[in-house]
């Protein structure tokens, strides 16, 4: 018998998992997830001039830009887009907290860093899978994928893979512009691996969740976020 997993709890655990996974990958230094790499590059560049401009702040600033792009593509602004920015703001603050905690753990060895990278990749995928299960507006990245998938009737996992690859290429171009041609900052071999495997990993995590849990709403708030 499947256990009940409330969608509101999926939202909270999804944000925490995404923040923890990103912090682990940042600590590993094999390359971040292609989804957050552009925001990380903005953080690196702006923090050269504004020291308090953290990775978390860069995240919700960049996600605001993604929401603007989504509005232009759909030719409309939905109420859920505003809630998505609130999610991004919460995530950004949780991310900064997770980074401060993870940085206290020693991972100087290659195998330690590799463990951090693999764990981060899987935890991030789990976080995305959980956010796909909730009616509460997810981060701009996940919302972009959901909205485009609904608009064009495409498979959400395949749409996610395409989005990830585009994000990866964007991060590479940004790295060259910010830090010089052929200078890869935040975008490394691990980023490419993540771009290729992330959609597949999210699909596997989703199947595992569906096998063990039945997702239900604990509160009647779904219409607010529609």
TrEMBL record:
Stretches that traverse the bilayer: 49-74, 81-102, 114-132, 161-184
Acetylation in keyword set: no
Keyword tags: Membrane, Transmembrane, Transmembrane helix
InterPro entries for the chain: YczE/YyaS-like
Highest taxon of the lineage: Bacteria
Keyword Transmembrane: yes
Protein name, as recorded: Uncharacterized protein
Species for this entry: Candidatus Ornithospirochaeta avicola
């Amino acid at each position: 018998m499947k256990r009940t997993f409330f969608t509101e709890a999926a939202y909270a655990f999804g944000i925490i998992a995404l923040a923890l996974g990103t912090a682990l990958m940042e600590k590993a230094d094999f390359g971040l997830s292609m989804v957050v790499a552009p925001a990380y590059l903005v953080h690196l560049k702006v923090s050269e001039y504004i020291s308090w401009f953290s990775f978390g702040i860069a995240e919700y600033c960049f996600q605001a830009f993604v929401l603007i792009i989504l509005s232009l593509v759909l030719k409309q602004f939905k109420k859920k887009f505003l809630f998505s920015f609130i999610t991004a703001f919460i995530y950004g603050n949780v991310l900064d907290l997770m980074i401060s905690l993870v940085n206290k753990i020693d991972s100087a060895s290659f195998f330690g860093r590799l463990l951090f990278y693999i764990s981060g990749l899987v935890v991030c995928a789990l976080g995305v899978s959980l956010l796909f299960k909730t009616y509460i507006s997810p981060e701009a990245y996940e919302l972009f994928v959901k909205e485009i998938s609904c608009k064009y009737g495409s498979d959400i996992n395949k749409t996610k893979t395409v989005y990830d690859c585009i994000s990866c290429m964007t991060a590479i171009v940004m790295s060259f512009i910010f830090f010089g041609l052929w200078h890869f900052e935040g975008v490394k071999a691990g980023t490419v691996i993540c771009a290729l495997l992330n959609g597949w990993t999210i699909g596997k995590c989703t199947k595992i969740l569906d096998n063990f849990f039945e997702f239900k709403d604990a509160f009647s708030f779904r219409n607010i976020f529609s």
